[in-house]
Amino acid sequence: MPQLYFSVERPLADELARRAAAENLPLSQYLARLVRQQVQSEWPEGYLSAVIGCCAVEDWEIP
Questions:
Q1: What is the DSSP letter of 45?
Q2: Quick one: which of 34, 39, 32 has its CA closest to 3?
Q3: CA-CA distance, 13 to 25, in Å (whole number)?
Q4: pTM of the full structure
Q5: Contact 27/16 with Cβ under 8 angstroms?
Q6: CA 44 – CA 46 distance, rounded (Å)
Q7: 4: Cα within 13 Å, side-chain hemisphere
Q8: Cα distance between residue 16 and residue 23, in whole Å
Q9: Which of 24, 30, 51, 52 shows the smallest number of beta carbons within 10 Å?
Q10: How do residues 33-50 score in pLDDT, each as one tens digit?
């Protein structure tokens, strides 16, 4: 798996570390999750059913 390196200011690094710790995740896993959420190019599995599936329209086509 490729590794990415980048730099941020100390206050931001501290905040990221705090948020990762609050979720009981290593910082690298927390950052990877943030990146996946921002770069994701498809709808999450089950999203359309959960969000628009509640609209009971029988002839509605999902694009």
A1: T
A2: 32
A3: 15
A4: 0.62
A5: yes
A6: 6
A7: 7
A8: 11
A9: 24
A10: 999 888 877 777 887 777
